[in-house]
Specification:
161 residues, alpha/beta, four-stranded parallel β-sheet, two-stranded antiparallel ribbon, binds 5-nitro-6-ribityl-amino-2,4(1H,3H)-pyrimidinedione
């Protein structure tokens, strides 16, 4: 069996973070968790570029533009969509999730999805540094892992034991 190498070492990697201003308190907490984790894993803060956008719906457009520059090993997207009384929630959720997926398909740059989709503010706060952890931090780990794995997939894995 041959296993492609996996690593959570962010040393020397450059990242872009796209974060939505809507529900700013939650976004700021997700960004803090994301940034902390990237640095803990060896990234240099000067190699982490942050783009704020108005809402989650705008995340894919900024992510696509950044991914196409070729400057980044991976992107992280952050924000929170909180269910209201109308179907708007569903359209914003679909727009951001499908949009991020399309950016990955079109550019081959890994894009981690750290956008919360919750029924209420309490659920969002719990996942932005509260009882359920910080999904910004988890998205940063996913971005690092994919940034390391994707180039490795282009090579044949070394033979195992
Ligand atoms: N944007 C969010 O990021 N979160 C939300 O909860 C939200 N709600 O509830 O409406 C939201 N709407 C704005 C949307 O993302 C766009 O910015 C807006 O439609 C303009 O294009």
């Amino acid at each position: 069996m041959n296993v492609y190498p996996s690593s959570l070492d962010a040393t020397g990697l450059r990242f872009a973070v796209v974060v939505s201003r809507f529900n700013h308190l939650i976004s700021a907490a997700l960004l803090e968790g994301c940034h902390e984790t990237l640095l803990e894993r060896g990234a240099d803060s000067d190699d982490v570029d942050v783009a704020w956008v108005p809402g989650a719906f705008e995340i894919p457009q900024a992510a696509r533009t950044l991914a196409k520059t070729g400057r980044y090993a991976a992107l992280v997207t952050l924000g929170s969509v909180i269910r209201g009384g109308t179907p708007h929630f569903d359209y914003v959720c679909l727009g951001v999730t499908h949009g991020v997926r399309d950016v990955m398909r079109e550019t081959d740059v890994p894009v981690a999805l750290g956008v919360l989709t919750t029924d209420d503010v309490g659920q969002a706060l719990a996942r932005a540094g509260g009882a359920e952890g910080n999904k910004g931090s988890e998205a940063a780990l996913a971005a690092i892992e994919m940034a390391r794995l994707c180039p490795a997939l282009l090579q044949r894995p070394r033979g195992g034991a």
